[in-house]
Amino acid sequence: MITVRRPEDIYQAEGRIENGTFHGRWHFSFDMYRDPEHMNFGPLRVFNDDMLSPGAVWPLHYHREIEVVTYCADGVFRHADQRGEGGILKKGWVQHTTVGSGMYHSEINDLKDKPMRFIQMWFMPEKPGLTPSVEQKRVDRPERTNKLLLIMANGVPDALPIHQDVRIYSGYLEQGHSAEHSFRNGRGGYFYVVEGGPVTVNGKELPEFGAAEIISEQHIKISATSNAEILLVDAGYV
Q1: 3-class SS of residue 122
Q2: Predicted local confidence at residue 52, as pLDDT
Q3: CA distance 58 to 109
Q4: Other C-beta atoms lying within 10 Å of the C-beta of residue 42
Q5: Which residues form the Quercetin 2,3-dioxygenase C-terminal cupin domain (predicted)?
Q6: pLDDT tens track for 164-181
Q7: If you classify domain 11-140 with CATH, what class do you get?
Q8: What is the pTM of this model?
Q9: What is the DSSP letter of 174?
């Protein structure tokens, strides 16, 4: 079963932050957004697509007991935490943060003259009290063109580690091309059109900013009507 979530059905938030403003598309209940129909997809608890105005900063704030995945969709993202550690992400690059026992961190638009857009996913960790850490991976477009590239998984070489049984794929499909993916029993996917499109997933059309919850499907074929940037989270959904 594939349940399409159209862009207009996904909650949108906006407000002021340090040095500027933000606009967010929040897929699951988060902060002031509460929707019992959209709480999570298995261990995926948060899926936020946020745009920060030039130079804007989400100030240092505290989290604990989450696995954070950040994907830079446009511009230059900068991460910082209370230890002075962080990193720079450019378009298509990805970062993993184990918040674990607790961490203050901040998300920053590193450019003063251009908006920055990032997608942040929060997962419940496999166990509590993990030691905080930050790792990131540079992913250039040719590496993910016309395929699904595994960028994060537990114990898979060349993929960033994550303390949860999930796999995250990114892809850039050129017009007329497709990619395929198979799910193990009991697993499904949360799929998102980051940019471009439309694309079809097993024949169901999704425009830019459209999403789909995929359950009880053994195999999917993703086809691009126009060039499209995509993300797929493979996880147990029960």
Answers
A1: strand
A2: 98
A3: 9
A4: 22
A5: 154-234
A6: 999 999 999 999 999 999
A7: mainly beta
A8: 0.96
A9: P
Cβ–Cβ < 8 Å for 51, 117:
yes
**Token pair for 105:** 């961190």
H or E stretch covering 141: helix 141-144
Nearest alpha carbon to residue 40 among 233, 184, 179: 233
Distance CA(109)–CA(88), nearest Å, equals 10
Alpha-carbon distance of 200 to 221, in angstroms, equals 8
Task: Tell me what pLDDT residue 84 has.
Answer: 64
Which residues of the chain are in CATH 2.60.120.10 domains? 11-140, 142-236
Residue with tokens 């130079």: 55
Instruction: For residue 52, give both structure tokens.
Output: 């920060």
Sheet hosting strand 67-74, strand order edge to edge: 11-17, 20-26, 44-52, 116-123, 67-74, 94-98, 133-137
What are the φ/ψ torsions at residue 142 (nearest 5 degrees)? -55, -30
Q: What percent of the chain is helix, strand and coil (3-state, nearest 5)?
A: 5, 55, 40
Domain 142-236: which CATH number of 3.20.20.140, 3.30.479.10, 2.60.120.10, 3.30.365.10: 2.60.120.10
Return the pLDDT at 32: 87
Distance between CA atoms of 88 and 78, rounded to whole angstroms? 5
Torsion of CA 154, 162, 53, 16, to 10 degrees: 140
Distance CA 74, CA 195 (A): 10
Chain length of the chain: 238
Residues of the chain with pLDDT under 50: none
